[in-house]
Amino acid sequence: MADAGTEITTYDELVSLVGRPLQRVAHKDRKSLLPIHHEWLAASPFCLVATSGADGSCDVSPKGDPAGFTHVVDDHTIAIPDRPGNRRVDGFSNLLANPHIGLIYLVPGRGDTLRINGTARLLRDAAYLDDLVVRGHRPVVVVEVHVEQVFFHCSKAFLRSQLWEPQAWHDPLPSRAQIAKLLERPEDPIEELQTYYGPEYAKRLY
To answer: Backbone dihedral region of 125: left (phi > 0), alpha (psi from -120 to 50 degrees) or beta?
Structure first.
């Protein structure tokens, strides 16, 4: 049986352990997008989308497209297009019950990130959807986010993990085809799965 450990149960106890943020850190967030935020969104090809259901269960989903895929409607509103995927719609289901959303935007090679928190709604149509077409694909669902908090996050996590340092990369894991064979599609021959997840996979993104 695992050690139960010593649990932290109060905010004051937490602060006594980690300390309080500097004033410039505590007050760095904004309630709307500034020009530098626009620039970051235009350069970012990838974000992580965090949602939570009515029961408190959480989900984080990756979203990626050509840089600038997030459409800035105005300084208080952004829109994220959905692309063909596994159709689980875990995050979307959460948003129908609880509109709160958290986003982290990455730029390859950069350690700092842009964080946006707010509330979201799902749209099946909007005046700007034609601006979100990629390779002829017009999204059928868009996550429109009302920005409530936006700020930049420092690069310490990326520096510690060496995420962008090729010399630190080491992949000891089974291939995607092998994982699918083990957990998702045990009845399919491994050769078919290797073909499915091979170079042709990139041709089916849209």
So the answer is: beta
Amino acid, single-letter form, for residue 107: V
Residue with tokens 């995927």: 85
CA angle 100, 144, 46 (to 5 degrees): 90
Decide: 72 and 131 in contact? Cβ < 8 Å.
Answer: no
Total structural domains within the chain: 2
Coil vs helix vs strand at 199: helix
pTM > 0.85: yes
For residue 97, the enclosing domain spans 19-161
d(CA 102, CA 153): 13
Q: Looking at residue 90, what is its pLDDT?
A: 95
Based on the domain organization, do 83 and 156 belong to the same domain? yes
One-letter amino acid for residue 56 of the chain: G
